[in-house]
Amino acid sequence: MSLKKSTKNAEVQEISSKSTTLKALLLVTIAALLRYAIMTSKYQSIIANHVEVSTPLSSWKRVSEGSFLFSKNINPYDGDLLHETPLAIKFYKVMLHYVFRNVHLMFIVFDLGTGMLLYLAVKKYAFEFQQHHKDRKKFPEDVQKYLPSQDFAQKVSIYVLMGFLFNPYSLLGCIGHSTMGIHNFFLSLFIFGMIYGSVVVSSFALAVCATVSFYPVILILPLSIYFVKEYKSNTKAVLAIVNFVTFLVLITIYNSNFGKDFSFVKNVYGCILSVPDLQPNIGLFWYFFTEMFDHFRELFIYSFQINTTILYLVPLSIRFRNTPFVLTVALLFLISIFKSYPCLSDLGFVLSLLPNFVHLFPDCQQGFVVGVILVISSSLAPVLWHLWIYSASANANFYFGVTLAYAIAQIFLVTDILFAQTKWEYSLKHGKDTKIDGEDGVLSLE
Amino acid sequence: MRLIFVLYCFLHVKSSTFAIQEDTFTEELLIKPLFSEQVYAHFQFATTWNIDPKNENYHHSHLFPRPIGETIERLNIQELHISLTGGLWRYETWGYPVVDAAPGAEIWAWFKHNTDNVDTNWKLLSNSLSGLLCASFNFVDGSNTVSPQFSFRPRGIVESSNNTFLRYASLPREIVCTENLTPFKKLLPCESKSGLASLLNSGYIHNTKYHSVSLHLRQICATEACDKLAQELQLSVSLVYDYAIMGTKNWSFKKLFGHGLNGNCPLASRSNIFVDLSSKTSHDFELTPEPDDVIYSIRGGQEQMFAKYDIPPYFLSVGAKYQNNLDFNVNIPPPLHACQYLTGYGQERGGIVTEIYNNHWKSLDIVLLQNIAWFVPVYLHTLKIVSNNNQVIEPSVLKYGPGKQREKPYYLEVVLKLPPRSLTKISIDFDYVFLKWQEYPPDANHGFYIGSAIISSYLPLAKNYTGLPQDASTITGSFNASRVGYLVQIRTENMVITLPTPDFSMPYNVICLACTVVALAFGPLHNITTKRLILKKKNRKKLLERLKNKFVEKFFKKKEEKSENDKNE
């Protein structure tokens, strides 16, 4: 009887998995058409010109300038328009000339690739998560209804795919030819490699991300924790670190033209770390360092960069060592909030990972506030930008206010998720009931 | 003993007479009524110093200004060209000036090819010139200096012309005023005591539509055979008076300079005044007093007539009285002229467009030099050169140096062949940058200046051309001086862009707000990572009650404890 049931279950699962794959393909096709339609419309250049989409680090115009200068035998790193590595420029050039022959196509394919990789990765992760909570008897009675259901993996993976493909932030980034979209492809490849336990893929993808935008370098810690905790393999963790360092060195050797020319270092990492270009973006750095007193500049640059990179790395890694995926997402969130030149693609990417935490949503308290702030600030940003830059009837403070709201919304979101995670861990042990001696109690951090 | 003294005196006198013979100084004034409602007055002071630049030191000069001699020796300078200009020369209606100059301050120098550190010397040079001429040359540094490859070739005799020894900078915002003219006059042998320089009355000069002071130093051949070198210094003042400001078309020294000329400079070997009579055919005028001589000059296909005055050692005032019957004349613009403007709206993206007109019937080769300040980052891939609105022109040579924020300007040099009778537009796009709040000038919304573009060409004919040939240093030398080509270096307009500004009153607020947001993340994350989640009884008591309890706890408990302790004791 039970055997029959289980085979039936498996069959149902197979059918549903097939239907999810079909659904995923359908979503991808629609997303591709949508992207192509907007890209070929007149809105493409308008979107690409927005500072929220094209930061100095992610602007396609600068990449075009860089490869044009390379083609004229002028070293673009003599100037400071280009902040991409030589490898990245070469990569775009090869992709454009030999593979795609069309900029639109290149960005669409990479964006869809990101979506698919995330979909596959999350499918596996969610399935394992569900398997982990399969033995329902282990958990208290009142938590049962919150535990992941049979079709958890199917549902979550589709949500993540939808969340990435139809998320206005990543959509705008892709349409605006933000090179962060291609960077995100490698970031998703990293997540994919991490979840599938591939040391080479994950460490390679991470090394690429780290050489391009520096900040992902901290993700090596969650990667090795993931291998230790989920794959119970210390060798994998060590190998991942060794591989990562090797790839970093190899890529740097290529970038420096085999040790001959290190001029890119100042333009790429110097720009990311010391923030010389104060063009507004959705981050916290630009106005802060525009208005900074010169003799305090270095102090605050150090403190802001430490805040972005290592300040939260160790405590979070210790606290969430048993859930390395949560740790990874939390760090990705913090990077996208506090990096020096964030753009909408960063936000879109991390937001699309949220459906992984559907089970935490009941414990989240600030979903509404965050949603409202994000909607309002996203719609106000271009309006206030126009008022400041084009009609000169507003000033920089207005736009600064919007970017503050952006950061606050994301901070509320990430702290809320992490707090919900601690509550979840608690409730798995002690149940949802918060009564002490028949009186209502509260959960608090002390 | 006495004999030795006499001999010494004799030798000394002899050597000083040599020195007098070695230096020559000429002063000239050219007055030319321009096509439109202006009159152009150009003062040309040329000093030649027959010194061997290699072997002699520059400490003993006679007519040559010693501060300049010392500077060029100390800083190893081959050639030096400076101009300080207010107003814009209108090439289209005024033709070509004797000396081209960009609005604001402009400086370019060639260093000798054995100079070790050109950049240090350049910085020293600009600093000493800022003291010498009371101009803001001290703002010349790496962030506005370029070394153009084609535009500024040496004007004199040089051993090598490798552009690593050339530096060029312009300060378009520089305002030229009396304080620059006074030190300039002190460089002349007679200063402003007598001779033509006494006409340089700052009260009148700065009322003109265009005024330019320039200094050109170079090495020339001392003899025909060119076996000896000499230093040559050309100091010039160009003025364009507007009839509308003067109130009448009749001009005289009194009207132009405030007073007449009180004799020549006794140290000058030649003092002349020339009046261009070519415009007499369109509107006749009569000169008083009668000129000493009339010179006919045929140069590069252009016939000209000049009235010549030799300045006597006593008072002279030249004036012109126009006849009443006014003939109208059609302006024939010169073969090559140009203008420059900004495109785009808002403060995000813009473009620089340079329009070059070729009115000549044949194609012209030109070199366009753009020295674009670092706060105007241009994108080379957006460079478009279109002639007559449809014909795309490929530059023969393109030199580009990308700029760097706060360090290096964008340098663009394009060699082009302009099609005959054409209008060529050269456009390039740029982004507006956002500066640190302390980098904005006090009047931040006044805008930032972008220097003029320089278009150099060798014209095949000397139409509307008054420039001096390369082998001459005086206006006299330009008469009947037909050459293969006539060098023009057209300067376009300066441009002003207003960069987007931050709110200057906000630094504390911004620092507080941004740090608050960072703290918003730090607080909860600190709590989550360092604290344990525990279940606690809900505190149902009201806030006031809680505060009261705390208060009671703090103060009364202590008392109780104390009294208990006392009891125990």
UniProtKB/TrEMBL annotation, chain A:
One of its GO terms (biological process) is attachment of GPI anchor to protein. The chain crosses the membrane at residues 103-122, 156-175, 182-199, 205-228, 237-255, 299-318, 330-355, 367-390, 396-419. It comes from Ceutorhynchus assimilis. Keywords: Endoplasmic reticulum, GPI-anchor biosynthesis, Membrane, Transmembrane, Transmembrane helix. It comes from the Eukaryota. It is found in: Endoplasmic reticulum membrane. One of its GO terms (cellular component) is GPI-anchor transamidase complex. Pathway: Glycolipid biosynthesis; glycosylphosphatidylinositol-anchor biosynthesis. This is Phosphatidylinositol glycan anchor biosynthesis class U protein. The keyword Endoplasmic reticulum applies.
TrEMBL record, chain B:
One of its GO terms (cellular component) is GPI-anchor transamidase complex. InterPro entries: PIG-T (IPR007245). The keyword NADP does not apply. The keyword Cytoplasm does not apply. One of its GO terms (biological process) is attachment of GPI anchor to protein. Residues 1-19 form the signal peptide. The chain crosses the membrane at residues 506-528. Keywords: Membrane, Signal, Transmembrane, Transmembrane helix. This is GPI transamidase component PIG-T.
